[in-house]
């Protein structure tokens, strides 16, 4: 029955359409600038998925429009179609093929996730403090110096951000780094980034945190190690007591419970 | 149209010009299936609070549970458990009686069940008064009061359903016919659920 | 007057509401006095003296309105009002504003109420787009903006998409399975009347001091636990909407299991019935979780408990786990009934049996099972247990498989059929296949942790939401409304206007929501009233399309109202469909059937010579045919 269909032609059309879509979509640089070692890995994953998805999408379109073109009822034709109730081979095919595609996607994502989260020995720690509606930063390795609204980091060195929210949930996002992590009151969340491109970027809060959410931004400067050292040396202020407490009290996973009556 | 009550059974009456009688396409009757499904969602409601309990106790993992200096009256609550569990038997007795057409037994069973349930609730409230900590004291207090309180609310609802059944029993409703004592059977199922749920709450909150 | 107060209805309802509210207020004041607290709470949140009346008031209304009369009399052992069916059927438009136990009346009540809230929510979307048309502040300040998208989403989800499906099914499902009504008609009516209450609470929160709730439809703690009074309206509205949909789901399950016509085996049920069976399974088991978590937020606010207060040993992230354990299944609650509608429409208008009927039904069940195991894909960047991410990624991606089965089977249904595109419902069904595929694929991308880390909480999410919810759910809703309009109203709608609405909606949807993918990836976060100027032109474009999309919906509104009033009369079966609801007159007689029909075959036996689905009473009964063997294999 389905032998009557020009399967080969339809597949050809699908591939052609998919190729066309993929070329256009991949050539557009969706995610903008790449400024960390994670960025190219994530963008590659994205491009692979774009290609696979445009294949799936083209398949759906070709199947739909071929049917519309071939099997549209002539005006005034009141008769019924052919009573086909199914076709086991086809049903198996479109159960198995998507399974393979998504499992491949899952495996690939897993490996990408694995190596963008590899901690390095020489990593530098930066404390991130977020509160409605401002960011501030501490440099534990550098005598606990403290700065507000503007963060400097050295290029080509892994940074481990330890995040501490003071009031509600905020979220740490630098699009050019492709890294995002919520800052959660009571717990320390961690993000690992290795910036590999000098420049000035924006740190954006991406978790709704109140009327100031939209304007909760900070400047991020990726500098040469030399410039960075100079800048850090120039900092006088150290992390204020309340923020320091939040570091002590936050745990990797959960709040340290208080004793009775502490509420 | 008939037996259109929430889960308490209806009583057939014949005038026509009404809708056609629906085809019964399953062995189980509507009220029983209804209450069973309702219990499923009730279980999930408790599930939400048990999930919270899990996070507050296991994930947050405070050094002590219950935190110092709080204590839970395990023994008293144990007695209370016994009381509630025994009420499961009395309601069962009531149902068996009406099955055998013994109206006396039905009334006796219902009244006993009601009293046992009420006693449980009274002791529970009394316990609240003397605990010495409130729902505001730490997450422990919050989850303790919400789990036991949620269950208490269910006991209260169960008591209401039982009162309906009791009133009707004394007004001479119900009979040995299967469809004539759904009004006892359905609250009974709910009551058994309330008992079982208490055993789970008790083990989780007081013993573990 | 006295009589009016005795009689169930609006007057007694209003009275009940007043008394209920007064009682709740008194209760709070008394309790606070007893426990030595200041009579009127002064903290920013909480306001128990407002919250409790917000619960007791509506209950008083329902009581007064007559929702409980029968049960109370029954409970007291009094002779219940003999079933005179005065509460049944609708003779004039007034009957739609009464407590009515007829599933057809309730269905219409549902559909009209929910579409009212659709337009309110849509109006808010228009305000959102007006604000976002340019960078900087246009018409509202940041705080109001947060309230706008929060109420927008809440209305659309809780009082439009979820209940409108319940409404459509309420009307056609009993007819489809040959039942005279739902299993529990009074419970059915009660579930409906809880719905406007929920909607009014959501909209009414704009009157609360501090403005409407503004923590998003997700209401994450601790933002929500610290928010002004409006948030409590959200907590309570969700309770009423949730109770309503649990009760309806229970009703559907019992109806489907115990009230099918003789001969209607499970494998002879139309797929819409299968879809509502699966949806109801989701609702009954998942909805209690959002009820529970909103109670916890309410307690944290009103009683100052510590569920989500880390300073009191609470766990902030537990809110998200419990919330999403409901709210992910919720997204399939908003999609599966649509799948059912599409199956009906496509097989009818391509004059062909559904391709792989059994696999279609099993795919639904598969989605139900899987969707309980994927909730944490909303929390990949939330700082939860990191080990949970990969397992949840795998289950999430696997959901593409059963969904894909449905997409391809619909396409397979078209082949060797006679496709009629004269009806707007078919146009929407076909467009749905393509549009939903895009939304689904973006979903699959979100399912991949590394991609989600980048685009989570950006406009990419907003694009995904609207492709699946507008291009998915709402398209299926339109398809269903057009498909059953003749059956429900007994009139034909205007196909010309229908086409205008269809093409406008299609273009509007793509134009509005496609660009969102790219500004999201490029760095525009969601839930912001202001944004970097580099996105200005894109947002202007989006807003223009959005207004166009909105304007087109007015065409739909006009078409429906005018056709209902003046449209040409519809015959019983304008689409020459097979399922039972088309075998009775349009609109169906008050009790659906003089006698229960007999089912003798599958629901989609198009083109099978002489095959029948059901035989109505009085028809010449004929021998039951075995289902024809599968014709033709490649
Ligand atoms: C109708 C509602 C609906 C539906 C059906 C879906 C369907 C899916 N959703 Fe969606 N989702 C939402 C509504 C919905 N979603 C909403 C409202 C949010 C935002 C909540 C908020 O934060 O406000 C959200 C958010 C959301 C997130 C969280 C993003 C974030 O906040 O960081 C994720 C992540 O995994 C996700 C994934 C998916 C997936 C994998 C599917 C899958 O079910 C899709 C499956 C379908 C297909 C894949 C297409 C058809 C299939 C084929 C053609 C077969 C071949 C395909 C392949 C091989 C890929 N969704
Ligand atoms: C079924 C669900 C549904 C539906 C149908 C819609 C419909 C629409 N939504 Fe909605 N939306 C959500 C669910 C839905 N949305 C959710 C869950 C969120 C997330 C909220 C959150 O972050 O918490 C969201 C968020 C959301 C945002 C992001 C807000 C933000 O994050 O800052 C935007 C922005 O453009 C938006 C726009 C629209 C538009 C333009 C429509 C249009 O399709 C609307 C079209 C319909 C109408 C316009 C109504 C008919 C016309 C009138 C009422 C007459 C008036 C018309 C004119 C003045 C022209 N929505
Ligand atoms: Cu901080 Cu949004
Ligand atoms: Cu989800």
Can I get a quick summary?
Chain A has 263 residues and is an alpha+beta fold. Chain A is built from five helices and ten strands; from the N terminus they run H-H-H-E-E-E-E-E-E-E-E-E-E-H-H. Chain C has 634 residues and is an all-alpha fold.
Describe, in plain words, how this protein is organized in 3D.
The complex is a heterotrimer of chains A (263), B (208) and C (634). Chain A has 263 residues and is an alpha+beta fold. Chain A contains 5 helices and 10 strands; from the N terminus they run αααββββββββββαα. Chain B has 208 residues and is mainly α. Chain B has 5 helices and no strands. Chain C is an all-alpha fold. Chain C is 62% helix and 1% strand. Chain C has a two-stranded antiparallel sheet with strand order 1-2. In chain C, helix 11 (336-349) crosses helix 15. The longest helix of chain C is centred in the first third of the chain and has 35 residues, at 142-176. In chain C, 66% of the residues are buried. Chains B and C meet through helix 1 and helix 4 of B and helix 4, helix 7, helix 8, helix 9 and helix 10 of C. The complex binds heme-A (2 copies), dinuclear copper ion and copper (II) ion (CU). One heme-A sits between chains C (218, 331, 334-335, 377-378, 396, 399-400, 403-404, 407, 437, 440-441, 443-444, 446-447, 452, 456, 461, 464-465, 468-469, 472-473) and A (56, 60, 98, 101-102).
SS summary, helix count of chain C: 19
Separation, N- and C-terminal Cα atoms of chain C:
75 Å
Indicate the proportion of strand residues of chain A.
Answer: 15-25%
User: How would you write the strand order of the largest sheet of chain A?
Assistant: 3-2-1-5-8
- The beta-strand count of chain A equals 10
Average pLDDT of chain A: 88
Q: Which geometry of chain C do the CA atoms define? A: globular
Q: What is the makeup of the main sheet of chain C?
A: 2 strands, antiparallel
SS content category of chain C? mainly alpha
Physical arrangement of strands within the biggest beta sheet of chain C: 1-2
- Radius of gyration computed on alpha carbons of chain C: 25 Å
Q: Write the H/E string of chain A, N to C.
A: HHHEEEEEEEEEEHH
Total number of β-strand segments of chain C?
Answer: 2
Quaternary form: heterotrimer
């Amino acid at each position: 029955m389905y032998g009557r269909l020009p399967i080969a032609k339809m597949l050809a059309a699908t591939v052609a359409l998919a190729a066309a879509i993929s070329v256009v979509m991949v050539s557009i640089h969706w995610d903008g600038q790449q400024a960390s070692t994670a960025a190219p890995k994530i963008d590659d994953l994205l491009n692979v998925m774009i290609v696979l998805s445009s294949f799936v999408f083209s398949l759906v379109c070709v199947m739909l429009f071929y049917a519309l073109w071939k099997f549209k009822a002539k005006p005034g034709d009141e008769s019924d179609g052919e009573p086909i109730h199914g076709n086991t081979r086809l049903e198996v095919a479109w159960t198995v093929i998507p399974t393979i595609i998504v499992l491949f996607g899952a495996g690939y994502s897993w490996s990408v996730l694995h190596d963008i989260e590899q901690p390095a020995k020489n990593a530098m720690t930066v404390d991130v403090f977020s509160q409605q509606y401002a960011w501030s930063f501490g440099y534990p390795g550098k005598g606990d110096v403290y700065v507000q609204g503007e963060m400097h980091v050295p290029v080509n060195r892994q940074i481990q951000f330890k995040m501490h929210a003071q009031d509600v949930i905020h979220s740490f996002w630098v699009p050019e780094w492709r890294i995002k992590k919520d800052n959660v009151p009571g717990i320390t969340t961690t993000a690992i980034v290795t910036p590999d491109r000098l420049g000035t970027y924006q740190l954006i809060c991406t978790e709704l945190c109140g009327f100031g959410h939209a304007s909760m931004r900070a400047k991020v400067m990726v500098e040469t190690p030399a410039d960075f050292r100079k800048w850090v040396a120039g900092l006088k202020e150290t992390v204020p007591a309340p923020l320091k407490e939040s570091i002590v009290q936050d745990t990797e996973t959960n709040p340290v419970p208080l004793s009775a009556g502490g509420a | 149209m008939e037996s259109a009550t929430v889960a308490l059974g209806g009583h057939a009456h014949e005038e026509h010009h009404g809708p056609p009688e629906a085809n019964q396409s399953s062995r189980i009757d509507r009220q029983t299936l209804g209450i069973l499904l309702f219990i499923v969602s009730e279980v999930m409601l408790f599930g939400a609070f048990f999930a919270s309990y899990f996070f507050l106790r296991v994930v947050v993992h405070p050094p002590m549970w219950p935190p110092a200096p709080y204590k839970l009256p395990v023994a008293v609550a144990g007695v209370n458990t016994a009381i509630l569990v025994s009420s499961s038997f009395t309601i069962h007795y009531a149902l068996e009686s009406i099955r055998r057409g013994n109206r006396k037994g039905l009334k006796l069973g219902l009244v006993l069940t009601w009293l046992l349930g009420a006693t449980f609730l009274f002791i529970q409230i009394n316990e609240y008064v003397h605990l010495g900590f409130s729902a505001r004291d730490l997450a422990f207090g919050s989850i303790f009061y919400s789990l036991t309180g949620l269950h208490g609310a269910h006991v209260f609802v169960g008591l209401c359903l039982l009162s309906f059944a009791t009133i009707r029993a004394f007004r001479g409703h119900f009979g040995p016919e299967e469809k004539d004592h759904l009004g006892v059977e359905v609250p009974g199922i709910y009551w058994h659920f309330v008992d079982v749920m208490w055993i789970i709450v008790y083990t989780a909150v007081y013993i573990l | 007057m006295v009589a009016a107060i005795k009689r169930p209805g609006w007057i007694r309802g209003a009275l009940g509401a007043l008394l209920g509210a007064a009682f709740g207020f008194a209760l709070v004041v008394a309790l606070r006095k007893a426990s030595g607290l200041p009579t009127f709470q002064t903290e920013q949140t909480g306001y128990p003296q407002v919250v409790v009346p917000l619960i007791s008031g509506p209950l008083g209304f329902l009581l007064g309105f007559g929702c409980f009369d029968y049960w109370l009399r029954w409970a007291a052992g009094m002779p219940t009002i003999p079933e005179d069916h005065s509460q049944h059927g609708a003779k004039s438009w007034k009957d739609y504003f009464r407590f009515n136990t007829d599933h057809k009346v309730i269905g219409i009540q549902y559909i009209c109420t929910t579409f009212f809230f659709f337009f309110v929510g849509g109006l808010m979307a228009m305000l959102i787009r007006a604000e976002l048309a340019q960078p900087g502040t246009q018409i509202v300040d940041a705080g109001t903006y947060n309230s706008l998208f929060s109420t927008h989403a809440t209305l659309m989800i809780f009082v439009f998409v979820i209940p409108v499906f319940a409404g459509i099914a309420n009307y056609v499902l009993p007819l489809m399975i040959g039942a005279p009504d739902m299993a529990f008609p009074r419970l059915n009516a009660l579930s409906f009347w809880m719905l406007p209450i929920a909607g009014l609470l959501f909209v009414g929160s704009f009157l609360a001091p501090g403005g409407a709730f503004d923590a998003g439809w997700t209401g994450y703690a601790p933002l929500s636990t610290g928010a002004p009074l409006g948030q409590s309206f959200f907590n309570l509205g969700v309770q009423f909407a949730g109770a309503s949909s649990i009760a309806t789901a229970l009703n559907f399950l019992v109806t489907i299991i115990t009230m099918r016509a003789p001969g209607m085996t499970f494998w002879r049920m139309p797929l819409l019935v299968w879809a509502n069976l699966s949806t109801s399974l989701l609702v009954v088991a998942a909805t209690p979780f959002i009820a529970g978590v909103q109670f916890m937020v309410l307690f944290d606010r009103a009683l100052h408990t510590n569920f989500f207060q880390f300073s009191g040993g609470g766990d902030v992230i537990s809110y998200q786990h419990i919330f999403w354990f409901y709210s992910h299944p919720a997204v399939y609650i908003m999609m599966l009934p649509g799948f059912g509608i599409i199956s009906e429409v496509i097989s009818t208008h391509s004059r062909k049996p559904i391709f792989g009927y059994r696999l279609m039904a099993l795919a639904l069940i598969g989605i139900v099972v899987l969707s309980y195991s994927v909730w944490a894909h909303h929390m990949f960047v939330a700082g939860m247990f990191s080990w949970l991410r990969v397992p949840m990624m795998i289950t999430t991606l696997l959901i593409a498989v059963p969904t894909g089965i449905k997409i391809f089977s619909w396409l397979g249904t078209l082949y060797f059929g006679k496709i009629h595109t004269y009806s707007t419902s078919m146009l929407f069904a076909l467009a749905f296949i393509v549009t939903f595929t895009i939304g689904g694929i973006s979903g699959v991308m979100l399912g991949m942790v590394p991609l989600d880390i980048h685009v989570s909480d950006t406009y990419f999410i907003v694009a995904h939401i609207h492709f699946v919810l507008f291009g998915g759910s709402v398209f299926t809703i339109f398809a269903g409304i057009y498909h059953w309009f003749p059956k429900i109203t007994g009139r034909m709608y205007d196909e010309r206007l229908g086409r205008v609405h269809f093409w406008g909606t299609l273009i509007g949807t793509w134009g509005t929501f496609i660009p969102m993918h790219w500004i999201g990836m490029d760095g525009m976060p969601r839930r912001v009233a202001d944004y970097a100027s580099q996105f200005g032109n894109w947002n202007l474009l989006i807003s223009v399309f959005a207004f166009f999309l909105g304007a087109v919906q007015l065409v739909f509104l006009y078409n429906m109202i005018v056709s209902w009033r003046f449209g040409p009369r519809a015959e019983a079966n304008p689409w020459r469909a097979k399922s039972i609801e088309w075998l009775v007159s349009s609109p169906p007689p008050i009790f659906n059937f003089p006698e229960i029909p007999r089912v003798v075959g599958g629901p989609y036996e198009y083109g099978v010579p002489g095959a029948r689905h059901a035989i109505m009473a009085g028809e010449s009964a004929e021998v039951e045919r075995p289902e024809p063997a599968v014709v033709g294999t490649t």
